[in-house]
Amino acid sequence: MKRPVVQGCYLWISGYVLAIYTELPWLTWMTSALLLAALVILYALRLPGRQPLGALLLVVIAYGYYQGTDQRNITALPLAQQQQISPDGSEATLLGRFASPVTIDGDRASFTLEAESVRFQDNTAFPLGGESVQVSLRLMEQAQQTIASGWRRGDAITLTGTLRSPSPARNFGGFDYRRYLRLHHTHWLLSAKGVDQAQVQPTAAHLSVVQLLRWNDELRAALSRRMDVIFPASQAGFMKSMLIGLTDDLDPDRFQQFSQLGLTHILAISGLNIAVFLGVCIWILRRFKVTKENYLLICMGLLPFYVLVTGASPSIIRAGLMSMIALYAARRGGMKEVLHILAVTAWAMLVWDPYFLLDVSFQLSFLVTLGLILGVQRVTILLTPYLISPTLRNTLAITLVSQSVSFPVSIYYFNQFSLLSWLANAVLVPVISMIVFPAGLVALALGLVYIPLGQRIGQLITWLNQAIFWITDQLQQIPHLTMIWPSPSMPWICFYYGFLVMIYLLWQRSYLHSKDEIPIILEVSTRESTQGMPIKLSLLLAISGFLILLWMGYSPNRFQRTGLVQFVDVGQGDAILIRTPYGRHLLIDGGGTLTFHKAGDDWKIRKDPYEVGRKLLVPLLKKRGIQSLDLLVLTHEDADHSGGLQAVIEQIPVKQFLFNGTFKESSSMTTFFSTLVQKDVPLLPAQVDDWIDIDPVTKLQVIYPLETNPTMIEVVKEQNARSVVFLLEMQGTRWLFTGDMEKESEAAVLDYLRDHPALVGSSNSVARIGSNNKIDVLKVAHHGSKTSTTSEWLTYWKPAVAVISVGAMNTYGHPSPEITDRLVNENVAIYRTDRMGEVQMEVRNSGIFTRMKLWK
Fold first, then answer.
1. Could you tell me if 722 and 716 are in contact, meaning their C-beta atoms sit under 8 angstroms apart?
2. CA–CA separation, 665 vs 716, rounded Å?
3. CA–CA separation, 69 and 15 (whole Å)
């Protein structure tokens, strides 16, 4: 009751959460406006029961406000026209203006277009009213980079290209690009080739919001160029990310390293940067004898400028607004309650854009700030009996509170936690925040005036950064300290915070009891849970329950006794993840991104190119809680099967590696095998042999290549014909995985099996050939190419189901109609990833149950 603003913000967020997970179509903006009027009348007349009723009304008002906003977040394009746009896209011409700066990376220029109208090839045109469209423009020549870099926010543009809807998530738990863009009020993508498809008309300068943003873009670009001069190339991207929020030049490997150590908040502009910025400004202004009232006013005026220059992410907006309110309160002697300031800031941001609530930076920023406000001082007091030094107590309390509060959200989105995160944050954050960041600001400011002076300070920062990078390199090399967590459920997260509160209350009660200072309120709040039970025993039970919760969250499927075969959609390639009934994990192939670069095309190479393993497969494995792979199988070494595995073996422990016993000469495969050797992963050349036990109900048998006891690794360029082919028995079901084998390989296998009939019989059956070579699921070879899957092959195996792993809109014509017709004629049910997305098949005692992510 003493914090009505805080309570109101909590109720408002509760209404949003209900709107996200439920739907009441009758609750709209109009309904919320009427209920808001009722709420005002309720309090104006001071009616009895107004507090509980008012709380309920506020939740419903927030529900309607969010739902009304969400209902209006639709494209202006008529539904009939939307239905005429094919999944591959339709040619269209957009007329509008640049709504963002142009980002150039290799042969691609990307930007947001504020479209006023669209015209299709049949000359039908529709107004779009300034709707945002995400544009990807492929540059055909290096000279086009210069042309595209001259385009500015606010310039008029007419652009012809292919208009299509963003792709939804194609894998269970995968990144949903369509949802991401929708939360940014964008519903369409336009792809075009060459700057000649664009007609750009520069806009004359005149004072407006667009012009101010344009000046801000130019300032950020100028600061970026100056930092390229002040700092060495190896560190310029790091400093840009920290000082002005530009991440385009940040080394992806360095970001990955900081991410694994829980240090990514250092690379994001947040409240820490605001505090240091204000500290530097106030220190300078006080040196010039500026009065307190004036320097507070000056800092308030500088903050919006700084927020814009640093990119205006939700975390920096939060910090900027809170700081401005705090500075105003300090100047006016008004509200000084930090919790109130946090609530006012959150409420204002959520009213401005309800989708902020779904932004990870918003969630982490407010959650950690709330934890620091409520917990640091209290935890510091509780640490008094254990630590004498106030500095150590405060440092440990900050680390303990921030890490504990952010942990569920971090593992939900990033699925990893380093046991060294506490140490890395406690040691490196003070150094970076108190030395590197302020010195970087000084170096940049002086470098704008006199470059050599900025470079001298930049050199000092460079030496310190090198020491920091050396420390992070050493920490990262310590094995087995990065834990992979599956994304937790919402009930698990609620229980987590419930246990945290319970442990704190009991810890506080134990501390006060030791001093005979138990407040009546605390005594009442914990009496029911601890009546008749010693406080320390209650605390021990709460900690035990908390540890059990963590144990359950780390591996929620540990007691599940069903198998799961997951045909991951990695585009034009294969990646199959298998979880056996006893929790073993097998990965067959890893997809890959095909690249074709000719001599002289170095300019096309992107700084952070899309790579299936790093961008898709590894995040998906982590989200599903794959802490290690018991067996990694590479059927053959073509890029569409092997390319994504480098990222896998770098980030996920592999116990054994099965391959075809050959080597395809390339830099990528050399790196791949070198990494396996460095990590001491056993290399198993495939050979025809007896069944291999995976777990008590899962067995594997290689049936191709036909070599036995291979002694040498042969260099083979054409890999398809050497694909590893194997049978898998799991809980009474039989699966055949074929890689990219070809007709000749199929014929060789059939001849061999006719001569060795016992080889493919069920491992649990005495009757082998004839009656028992039937399989339940066939992974169709070579993405459904007509170079394999002959009639003889299907007749021999008699599969009930066939799965084709193939990329949507691939240029190879896969799968071949000849093959799909052949499967249909053999009464084989067909599942294909290009139309259905990921295909998952769960093996239960009663049979195989299938679900698909998409259906087209």
1. yes
2. 8
3. 13
